[in-house]
Description:
By secondary structure, the chain is mostly beta strands. It folds into 3 domains: 4-40 and 443-795, Methylamine Dehydrogenase, Chain H; 111-272, 7 Propeller (Methylamine Dehydrogenase, Chain H), CATH 2.130.10.10; 279-397, no CATH class. The protein is built from 3 helices and 60 strands. The protein starts with a strand and ends in an 8-residue tail after the last strand.
Amino acid sequence: MSSRxxxxxxLVAAPALAVALIAFPRAQAPSRADADYLRKAYGTYRSMVQxxxxxxxxxxxxxxxxxSGRATDVAIADRGPARRIYVAYATSGVWKTDxxxxxxxxxxDDQPTSSIGDVAVAPSNPDVVWVGTGxxxxxxxxxxxxxxxxxxxxxxxxxxxxxxxxHTIPRILVHPTNPDIVYVAAxxxxxxxxxxxxxFKTTDGGRTWAKVLYSSPSTGAIDLVMDPSDANTxxxxxxxxxxxxxxDPRVEPGSTESGLWKTTDGGxxxxxxxxxxxxxxxxxxxxxxxxxxxxxxxYAFLDNYEPGRPAREGERDAYGRPISEARIKxxxxxxxxxxxxxxxKVSDTSEFMTNHSGTYGWVFGQIRVDPTDENTIYxxxxxxxxxxxxxxxxxxxxxxxxxxxxxxxxxxxxxxLYNANDGGFYSSEDGGxxxKFAVSAGGxxxxxxxxxxxxxxxxxxxxxxxxxxxxxxDLSNGRDKIPPQEWSSAPGGEGSFQAIDPANADVxxxxxxxxxxxxxxxxxxxxARGRRGxxxxxxxxxxxxxxxxxxxxxxxxxxxxxxxxxxxxxxxxVASVHEPGVIYAGYQFVYRSDNRGDGWERISPDxxxxxEAQMLLRSSNAIPYQTxxxxxxxxxxxxxxxxxTDDGKLHVTADGGATWTDLTNAIPTRKWYSxxxxxxxxxxxxxxxxxxxxxxxxxxxxxxxxxxxxxxTSLAANVPAGSVNVIAEDPRNANTxxxxTDxxxxxxxxxxxxxxxxxxxxxxxxxSDLSYQARDNVIVISTYGRGMYALDALRIRTDR
Length: 800
């Protein structure tokens, strides 16, 4: 890098970088922790919950009571006039209602994963329910599954029935008259190639499975539909995709295996049926459905990667990034009238279809045909759209949350629609004119939690597709009666840490997308809203300078010709407790501001591998990679900072960034850094956690150093599985530590030599973050799928 860099008009010397030659007493990393490992480890965790000395301390739900989370599918069990609705959620498990949504019950709380791709009911036996774990939409934070589960008692109990290494299951089909015959479409690992992809079939109720359709380790089945007039005739859609750490799961050079298939002998043989579709190298994700009223008619929804119109001047994607390449043709609808022998495009080439799925069509791909009318179809994308003319024109239905992933149409009353989207489950009885929201089902997908020093404390967090929110942690009714609440708007976007200014709790530093940091003075924002007669809270900002009242963009500026800044989805921002006005922000560099973001200095070199082969620079497919994901300053020593990256690099500076030491070789694993936590009890102690989720691996990576990173010791001990998302110290006791993993919360009272499950009443769900409010001695965790919970830390026994 250049010896000098220019930032906001100031020249600053580039910091020196030292490489630490460190002899590491390496703890042995475990053998690859796969999905079977994860499933079995969850049994250990459940035993730990039952035997924990802290099992009498309840987790108390904080809400939000006004927000749900992403739903993926809907299934119906009808017994005469009685109807049971099952709803699958991306990370909130499975929920059911027997009163058309008036009340809901979670029925998958005690399973190894809360990530659900599909739920299906046997048409011949409403007591037989199948659950396919692992959301197949491949959001960056999607969680893996551990195979399929079966219930024979209407969802009261579930038994694991195999296919653990599939990780993602988009569709399950049960034979119309024989509940023991089941087909499963498996799309495979998200981040790596694997063999457990394609279509699987069981004829003995899940005891054994045969792989009946398979292309390659990079191609899975993404949709599956059965001919209503012939149970041996099925149609499958395959999708060749791998999510990269630096790219969304889009069509790549050499991709030729996405397409449609047909079998007429129950899966024994399959034939491609792609006549009339775009060439294989342009086929992205596909969805398929058959017309029940005329089984010769099928529709296919295709994300077409053929080049379309050029990008317009100033055009940006959903995250505000400039679009430099031609737009792809994107969403297209195809129809066959001869059971797949030939297809023809029926949708118009229009701006509506180009924008149908935004710039991320790989998370959608669903299409439904009205069971009584072959010319009425629904396409699911950013909006839920209906066509009455066989796909030529569409009208968007309104009144529900956006980003649609599932739709069930009542075959007897097609005006009854059940919709699964990023906001949860919605139902309509009038063909989509009005909608009812199941607010009490599912749960919010929080990425983080921050507690401020207010009385009572505000809890802040960002929620997938709902922006950032906050609510009070209200102890006024007693420490064992902390109530759930509605959550209101807060500074930040849907992927944002919140850093509270130590000098003024109204001032919050937060984040929009990919490094678009803002400073919000909530008192100014509230005053402006009051003058306008508005309600609600503050939010993030857009471009440089002042936006809405009280909101200022503070993204560092770079001079022309300087390096492009790379910032992660959850880019870190830190407010120093040592100097008023000092904040730090993490890109591939560390930036420091002395004036709350009005000006910045770059205080580090690139702390990542900076490998251009793993970055699609300036490509519309690119997502920022090789970025800082964990950044923290010591609460004891000014200028002592640690930075960890998504590509497994770790650095430390003890002089405010003048020199940096590379600690990467001191850690035996090169994984995504989820947290770096300098100790509040000892100057030279630091804790770090890593996660293997982006490698489709679930080992436990917790380390401690007492010499500023010269050597590290593993604290994995008896934590049964990862990924490990957070570690925190108890402010009262240096030997008491807390950790959050993909299925629970843990505490150690002996410095990490042994861990216990923390608290009771927590469903199986990812604990994404943990914050300890020292004044009130309350712990709050954020979960990615079930909202936030609080626990009375005064009840934790520290003598174990």
